[in-house]
């Protein structure tokens, strides 16, 4: 798949060491290239035994930096390459490389480049379980983390050596996402808590049937991903698990409006925990750190009604007869009932009426007590289930038209508008 991230013009250095997982580095390089990044590769001599430098040159259209190819007549050397890179990710990183890297040992070209590099560094370990569990390696990983090196944790599976346990290289897409985050992090969103809801709720009729809607959850996925890539601390309540979400986003799977409401109260409470009031006439010198005010993005399509009497088993057609009347009751209005003090709230409103839809959306500002509304006219290839969307970002004093774009791209435009809601 092509990740929904634009890295056009960004410069990424990929380090490849001598692990059997080196072949997966080809997929990592491909993901970076497809996202628009300029990619260069540096390899250890051991890595060349697993993958040919020619493979990476074909994928990146850039010469590969190797021991035999280092040049001082141009920039194909460890000093200039280190200066060129905006992000440096070593994937796979062997136990040998991890231990040397933590001690500042630079006895091959890749380690020399790492020692000369001053930007965000990421390592994705891949080694036998016992080699990673060895106290020397564990100590090295701790030392790297203390020195702000991002460790993309290995996964647990059957390893090439036949052992089963932690040590397999992380999924290439996850390595891609964590590298992208290092490049795209935004100081405004960094470490800011945010709660996102997404997808259409499912209100049970019986054990197999439900009342639902056409919401795909794709817009909420894009928002959660964009927030995480910008550095936010996310709690994502979703009704459906679409593929491709960064694994580090904290997600809670829910089904009904009632279940979403219960979790939402807890998520907001945690997000607001520690938030202190700013200096005021009554409290001109508040003590302690002031946490960045959290955000709530209510992108879920919450069902207005639910069956009054949901059944435990499956209702039989023969017992229901030719005509079936289903009694519904109204669900609680989550947005109205939530305590939104201390949290910036952005609501989402989908309308099919092109004439009254915008005004209906604007009325939410007062009716629901929110700071902004993302209004979109559903239809014409936009909205539910589609890959593109267009919204009008409405606040009490302005409206911003965000033109039709892929939902991943639109999510960043929404975040740019949401930043303007803060008084910071």
Structure report:
The structure is a single chain. The protein is an alpha/beta fold. The protein has two domains: 11-184, Rossmann fold (3-Layer(aba) Sandwich), CATH 3.40.50; 193-279 and 287-313 and 325-419, 3-Layer(aba) Sandwich (Rossmann fold). The chain has helices at residues 24-34, 53-60, 78-84, 95-103, 109-116, 129-133, 135-146, 172-184, 218-229, 257-272, 317-320, 334-337, 357-369, 407-419, and strands at residues 11-16, 38-43, 87-93, 121-125, 150-151, 155-158, 164-168, 193-198, 203-204, 210-211, 233-238, 250-253, 295-298, 305-307, 328-330, 344-351, 372-377, 388-395, 398-406. It has an eight-stranded mixed beta sheet, sandwiched between helices. A five-stranded parallel beta sheet has the order 2-1-3-4-5, with helices on both faces. Strands 6-7 form a two-stranded antiparallel sheet. A hairpin with a 2-residue loop joins β18 (388-395) and β19 (398-406). The radius of gyration is 25 Å and the shape is elongated.
Tell the overall outline.
elongated
Name of the CATH first level of the largest domain? Alpha Beta
Q: Please, how many helices?
A: 14
Could you tell me the radius of gyration in angstroms?
A: 25 Å
Strand order, main sheet: write it out. 12-11-8-13-16-17-18-19
- Helix percent band: 25-40%
**Mean of residue pLDDT values:** 90
Record field, number of beta strands: 19
Q: The CATH topology of the largest domain, please? A: Rossmann fold
**What about the largest sheet?**
8 strands, mixed
Please identify the oligomeric state: single chain
Structural class: alpha/beta
End-to-end C-alpha gap: 38 Å
What portion of residues belong to β-strands? 15-25%
Poorly predicted ranges (pLDDT <50, ≥5 residues)? Answer: 276-282
Q: Give the count of structural domains.
A: 2
What is the fourth-level CATH superfamily of the largest domain? CoaB-like
CATH 2nd-level architecture of the largest domain: 3-Layer(aba) Sandwich
């Amino acid at each position: 798949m092509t990740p929904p991230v634009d890295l056009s013009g960004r410069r990424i250095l990929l380090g490849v060491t001598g692990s059997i997982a080196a072949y997966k580095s080809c997929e990592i390089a491909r993901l970076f290239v497809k996202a628009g990044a300029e990619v260069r590769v540096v390899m250890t001599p051991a890595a060349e035994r697993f993958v040919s430098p020619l493979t990476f040159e074909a994928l990146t259209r850039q010469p590969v930096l190797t021991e035999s190819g280092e040049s001082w007549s141009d920039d194909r050397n460890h000093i200039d390459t280190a200066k060129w890179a905006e992000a440096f990710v070593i994937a796979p990183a062997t136990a040998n490389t991890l231990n040397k890297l933590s001690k500042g040992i630079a006895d091959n070209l890749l380690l020399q480049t790492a020692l000369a590099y001053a930007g965000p560094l990421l390592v994705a370990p891949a080694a036998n379980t016992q080699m990673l569990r060895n106290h020397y390696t564990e100590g090295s990983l701790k030392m790297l983390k203390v020195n702000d090196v991002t460790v993309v944790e290995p996964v647990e599976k059957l390893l090439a050596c036949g052992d089963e346990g932690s040590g397999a290289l992380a999924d290439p897409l996850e390595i891609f996402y964590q590298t992208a985050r290092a490049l795209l992090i935004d100081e405004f969103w960094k470490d800011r808590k945010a709660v996102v809801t997404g997808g259409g709720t499912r209100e049970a009729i019986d054990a197999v049937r439900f009342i639902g809607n056409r919401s795909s959850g794709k817009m909420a996925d894009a928002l959660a991903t964009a927030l995480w890539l910008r550095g936010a601390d996310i709690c994502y309540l979703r009704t459906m698990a679409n593929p491709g979400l960064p694994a580090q986003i904290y997600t809670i799977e829910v089904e009904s409006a009632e279940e979403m409401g219960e979790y939402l109260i807890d998520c907001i409470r945690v997000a607001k925990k520690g938030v202190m009031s700013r200096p005021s006439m009554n409290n001109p010198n508040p003590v302690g750190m002031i946490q960045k005010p959290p955000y709530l993005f209510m992108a879920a399509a919450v069902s207005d009604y639910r069956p009054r009497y949901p059944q435990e088993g499956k209702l039989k057609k023969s017992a229901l007869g030719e005509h079936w009347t289903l009694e519904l009751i109204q669900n609680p209005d989550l947005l109205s009932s939530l305590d939104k003090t201390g949290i910036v709230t952005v609501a989402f409103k989908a309308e099919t009426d092109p004439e009254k839809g915008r005004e209906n959306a604007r009325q939410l500002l007062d009716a629901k007590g929110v700071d902004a509304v993302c209004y979109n006219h559903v239809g014409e290839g936009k909205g539910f289930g589609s890959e593109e969307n267009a919204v009008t970002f409405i606040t009490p004093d302005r409206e911003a038209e965000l033109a039709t774009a892929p939902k991943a791209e639109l999510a960043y435009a929404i975040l740019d508008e949401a930043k303007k809601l803060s008084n910071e």
